[in-house]
Amino acid sequence: MVVVSIFPIDFNGKLHLVFIFEGDDGNTIVDVADYRVEFEKRNHARIRSIGDRAILVGGTHGLGGWCRASRHGLLPNSIYWMNPRDNRLRVHDLGEKTEEIRDPCKGIADRPSCRGFG
Description:
This is KIB1-4 beta-propeller domain-containing protein. The chain is mainly beta. Helix content is 3%, strand content 54%. The protein is globular and about 50 Å long.
C-alpha cells in the first residue's frame, strides 16, 4: 500500500501539486513529484526542473510554499519535506531524483519546535 500526501503550491500564479508517495511503513519514500495543473487543457504536467527554487512542504494540513534557493542557502531544484511521523527533514532533488535525510531534531526532540507540523 502507498500513502500519498498532496500539497498545493501557488507557483508564480500557477497551481502546482506536490505529491509525496510513501511506502506503508511510513519511512520509505517511493516517489516525489511536482505537477503543474493546466486548467485550460484539463491536464497536468510533471515538472522536472524548478531552477533556482526550493519547495518546502510538510505537516498534515497541506502546508507548502517556495523560495529562491540561493537566497536562503537551500539546494536548488529541490523539494524539502518534513515528515510529521519521524521529524526528519527530507530533501529531494528533482533533477537527480536523489533524497537526503536530515535530522534537525536529533537530541532535542522534546523541544516544541521539533514536534513536526501536525
